[in-house]
Protein: Rpn family recombination-promoting nuclease/putative transposase
Organism: Chloroherpeton thalassium
Amino acid sequence: MSYLQEKYINPLTDFGFKKLFGTEPNKILLMDFLNQILPEKHQIQELSYSKNEHVGQQELDRKAIFDVYCVGQSGERFIVEVQKAKQNYFKDRSIYYASFPIQEQAKRGNWDDKLEPVYTVGILDFIFDDHKLDAELIHVVALKKSAQRSFSDKLKFIYIELPKFKKTEAELETQFDKWLYVFRHLSQLQKRPTKFQEKIFEKLFEAAEIAKFSKNELVAYEESLKYYRDMKNVVDTSKEEGWLEGQKAGCEQRNYEIARVLKAKGMPIQEISEITGLTAQEIEHL
């Protein structure tokens, strides 16, 4: 298998992320990662996975399919998404997705209007345009009143911009540092680094070892890795050719070019639409 040269899985691929963080045997990995970014009162001791597909109430609502969707022991909802490339309406999509865990709480009998907290965690393989000059790599968005006073703590968005994380292994200090290092460098490693001796990372590296995959897992991972690399190549090429720096007409042309390449590679039209902002009809006519 030509794509599988590394020892460890790439956690930013769809298959890799769900293998490490979206399965019952490995849920301790997800809990440890989330606890690095959650407030003290919402630290997770246990969680359960929910179905990661929701369908809107209206026929025109498109499906919301989450990478990982889980519920904490106290009822908190967590949507955890890996985003590999910029999308025109990524923030809008985050809000749309967050509406489903809110709506589902109203389906209980004799609902008293009390909501459990909903968190959307985005692990981003890009930097927001409006944050390029901001050194902070983690952004917490909450409901605020005037003067930055909290309106409600029931809905929060946490975005992590991975490209801003530049620390070397020697510079790692916190558990959060180590998790970010894993997301950025796991597939490039040949052994578990000396700073990763905790039991949680022993389990991570064991689960990530490609040589232990079944034949079906190898096939699924290779497809996921190819998709990830194709996506990255398309985005990198668009940057190199200056499409992303153009005016409105140039941006539109860039979206059409990316859509044309992704369609030729067999990507579903819905996903191309989310990435480029083009309508399904526009994509079908390419």
